[in-house]
């Protein structure tokens, strides 16, 4: 089964399009000691993330580890990331690795091997990629689609400087058309788009029209200010088609607070994310 269909199956089974983002901010992960070695810190991060996976796997269909938070810890952090991805897949979660790679030729091929291949070091189900260098930078990742892998291409992000470089230049529309052409006969294709939660609704609607069978990865929910109303334009009428990651709002208590029992607190916040992103609330009657 191709990635887009595997994802649809799991989202339907879980009843939610919420995704837990694994962004282990070192100043917020319980047990991280300032001045500790990278190896010691990586071990704390590993155990924290494994706890997150254990309590969220029954609630959410996927995780989205941000590789940079592991890479900052050097080789020990890279090893921790490998363990975290393996544990998530063993728990039945799909793994969307947030790496935003973008290069051409043998370099892009090496990135694809490193992040997606099951016999590579990480073996994620999908990765985020940047299309800035053109379609050649996407081909090595696309070649993994027959093996059940997927990718999410940066199309329209919601950071303040994105508009002039993305929507206003037409690049987003061109990339969107390329993504749409890759869906094949799938209900939802294996190549999706990153479209931010705070992008204006009219732009989102236009992108959804261009990519009716693409998954949208929709960052910006929760701590970054977006709620279910901002997500609605990203979702198809059948309640599918959008994945909504939330990291800080699930992993950590509100600023200035502390979790007496971090595992239980994370489970409760993940359950709230699942409720806020339940596919039933986005389903349009009569579809």
| Beta-strand content | 5-15%
What is the chains' assembly state?
single chain
Shape label: globular
Helix content: 40-55%
Structural class: alpha/beta
Whole-number average pLDDT?
Answer: 94
Rg: 18 Å
- Cα distance spanning the termini: 24 Å
The number of helices is: 12
Spans of at least 5 consecutive residues whose pLDDT stays below 50 are none
How would you characterize this protein structure?
The protein is of the alpha/beta class and 287 residues long. 40% of the residues lie in helices and 14% in strands. It is built from 12 helices and 8 strands. Strands 1-2-3-4-5-6-7-8 form an 8-stranded parallel barrel, surrounded by 6 helices. α9 links the parallel β6 and β7. It starts with a helix and ends in an 11-residue tail after the last helix.
Strand and helix map with partners:
Blueprint: H1 3-14, E1 18-22, H2 38-56, E2 62-65, H3 68-71, H4 74-90, E3 94-101, H5 105-115, E4 126-129, H6 139-142, E5 150-156, H7 162-165, H8 171-181, E6 191-195, H9 201-210, E7 216-217, H10 228-231, E8 242-246, H11 248-251, H12 262-276
Parallel strand pairs: 1-2, 1-8, 2-3, 3-4, 4-5, 5-6, 6-7, 7-8
Helix pairs in contact: 2-4, 2-12
């Amino acid at each position: 089964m191709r990635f887009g269909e595997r994802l649809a199956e799991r989202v339907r089974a879980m009843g939610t399009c919420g995704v837990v983002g694994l962004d282990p901010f070192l100043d917020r992960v319980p047990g991280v000691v300032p001045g500790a070695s990278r190896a010691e810190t990586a071990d704390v991060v590993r155990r924290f993330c494994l706890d997150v996976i254990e309590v969220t796997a029954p609630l959410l269909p996927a995780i989205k580890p941000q590789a940079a938070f592991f890479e900052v810890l050097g080789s020990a952090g890279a090893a921790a990331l490998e363990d975290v991805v393996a544990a998530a897949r063993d728990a039945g979660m799909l793994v969307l690795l947030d790496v935003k790679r973008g290069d051409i030729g043998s370099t892009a091929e090496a990135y694809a091997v490193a992040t997606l291949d099951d016999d590579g070091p990480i073996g994620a189900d999908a990765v985020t990629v940047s299309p800035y260098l053109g379609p050649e930078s996407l081909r090595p990742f696309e070649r993994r689609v027959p093996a059940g892998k997927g990718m999410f291409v940066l199309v329209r992000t919601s950071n303040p400087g994105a508009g002039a470089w993305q929507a206003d230049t037409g690049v987003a529309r061109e990339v969107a058309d390329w993504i749409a052409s890759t869906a094949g006969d799938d209900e939802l294709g294996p190549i999706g788009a990153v479209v931010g939660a705070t992008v204006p609704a009219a732009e989102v609607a236009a992108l959804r029209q261009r990519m009716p069978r693409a998954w949208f990865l929709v960052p910006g929910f929760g701590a970054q200010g977006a709620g279910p109303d901002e997500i609605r334009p990203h979702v198809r009428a059948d309640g599918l088609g959008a994945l909504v990651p939330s990291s800080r709002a699930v992993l950590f208590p509100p600023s200035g607070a502390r979790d007496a029992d971090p595992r239980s607190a994370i489970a409760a916040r993940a359950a709230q994310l699942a409720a806020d992103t339940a596919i039933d609330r986005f389903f349009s009657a009569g579809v």
